[in-house]
Amino acid sequence: MRWEELNSLVSHSALLSLARSYSSVESFLVNRSKALAAAPAHGGLQGGGAGAGAGGVDACPGVDAGTLAAVEAVLEGCLAPQWRSGAQLMHELRHTIQVLPTGCAAIDSLLGGGLREGTLVEVAGETASGKTQLCLSAAATTAYRNEAVLYVDTTGSFAPERIVQMAEAEAAAASSGAWQQAPDAGLAARVLGCISVLRPSNVYELLVPLDRLGAALQQQQPGSDQPAFGAAGGVEARGARVGPRLLIVDSVSALLSTVLASTQHTQGTALLTAVGRALKQLAEQHSIAVLVTNHVTGAGPMTRGGRAGGGGGSGGDGGASERGISAAAAVGVGGLKPALGEQWRPQPHMRVQLSMSESQSPQSGVRLATLTASPLQACGQKLEFRICASGLV
C-alpha cells in the first residue's frame, strides 16, 4: 500500500513525515509492531520516536503519538477485516450486492442468478467447450446495460463483432414486445465503448495493471469530486458507482501455466498466488464481479468419457445421477479437472466446468455445464446450453 493512497484520510504534513521515515505503509506497520512488542507491558509508546531505541525500531520525527494512533486506526479500517453479524451479511446480500447476468440462462441458474459482485468465478473446460463464448456473452450483456467492463484477453480470442452480434440479439429480445422496433444505429459504438481490452503477454503484464487498478480505485471515493474509472481505459463521472462492474480474464491459465511449467521460474507458485489474491481483492474490496477461464487436464486415472464410481448415464455414479449430482464433480468432469494445481484450486469462490455433450456432435453447439464448486448450491448439478448465432441459449 502506498502512502499517497491515504491522502484523503491523513493530513498532508503527517504523510510527508511518515513517508520520509518509512518507504511504505507495510514497513511502518512492521516497525510499529516491533515497537509495541519492545515497549514495557504497561508503558506503551510515547511520541513518534519512543520506540527508536527499543529493538532497533526507527523513529518518526515530527509525528506525535496521537497522530500515530490516528494513522493506525485508519490503516486498521483500510486493511484489517472487521467482524460482521450474519444479519448484516444477509442484508448486504439482499440489498447491496448485485448479480450480473451472463447472457446464458443455464449458467446463471447454476451460479444462483449470475455473476455476483465481490465474487471470483472460474469457468474451466477443454478447447471449444464454450469458455470464450461465455466471456463474450457476459461482456456483451453487461456492456449493453451501459456498465464498464475490463476484458483481459491473453489468447487473442476477443472478437468485437461477436460482442456486437450478441448485443444486437439482446436488443432484439428486449424490444420483442415493443410497439415500435426501431434499430439502434449507435448500439455497436455504445456497447464496445463500455469495454476496455488488455492483452498481456506474460504474468507480469497482468499483475502490474491489476495493481494499478486497485490503487486507482482505492483513491476514488463515492461522491468525491475526482473522476472514477470509466470505459475505454479513461475516466468518467459515474455517481456513486466507482470502477468497472465486471472484470474478465480469458484465460488465466494461458499466462500462469508457462511459469509453473518452466524450470527457469522458481517463483511460479508465488506468482500464481499473487494473481489469485489480486483478483479476489479487486472483487471483494471494490464490488467487482470477476470471471476467469482455465483449461483442463487429466484427472488421475480417469480418461475422457470415463466415469467415477462405474455408474452409467450422463450423471456419473448411478445413485447420484437421479439427483443430477455427479460423484466426479469433486475431481473433475468426464475425466478432466481444472488446471493449475492445488495452489490455484481454492482461489475461485465458485467454479463451473464446461464439457462437450456426449449425446450430440460438437457441431450442434450443445455443451454441458457442471457446477463443481459453490457456497450457494449443491455441487454436481448439470445443465445443457447451446452456442448459436445470437449467443448462449
UniProtKB/TrEMBL annotation:
InterPro entries linked to this entry: HRR_RAD51_Paralog, P-loop_NTPase, Rad51_C, Rad51D_C, RecA_ATP-bd
GO process terms (BP): DNA strand invasion; double-strand break repair via homologous recombination; reciprocal meiotic recombination; telomere maintenance
Protein name, UniProt field: DNA repair protein rad51d
Gene that encodes it: PLEST009889
Organism from which the protein derives: Pleodorina starrii
Keywords, comma-separated and alphabetical: ATP-binding, DNA damage, DNA recombination, DNA repair, DNA-binding, Nucleotide-binding, Nucleus
Residue stretches making up the RecA family profile domain: 96-296
A Pfam family it matches: Rad51
Localization of this protein: Nucleus
CDD domains xref list: Rad51D
Highest taxon above the source species: Eukaryota
Molecular function as annotated in GO: ATP binding; ATP-dependent DNA damage sensor activity; four-way junction DNA binding; single-stranded DNA binding
Family as reported in the entry's similarity comment: Belongs to the RecA family. RAD51 subfamily.
Taxonomic placement: Eukaryota, Viridiplantae, Chlorophyta, core chlorophytes, Chlorophyceae
GO CC term (a single one): replication fork
